[in-house]
Amino acid sequence: MDERITIDVDRLREALIQETGPAAFVGSPWAIVDVAALEDAAPEELVREAERRGWDLRRFQV
Predict the structure, then answer these.
(1) Looking at residue 28, what DSSP letter applies?
(2) C-alpha angle 11-17-22 in degrees, rounded to nearest 5
(3) Single pTM value for the model
(4) Where are the alpha helices (DSSP H) in the chain?
């Protein structure tokens, strides 16, 4: 079954950045690149990243 929901992309982006950001502060160059990529990512890319991390996207449902 293909369940479709409307996602608050701004909230999703912020949550992904908040989870990734702390690694950037400890000097991980990959985390710095990841945060920059998340800031500019298209909504579809954010959804794919959240799914890759195993997140329940219903948390961001409008």
Answers:
(1) -
(2) 140
(3) 0.79
(4) 9-25, 29-40, 43-52
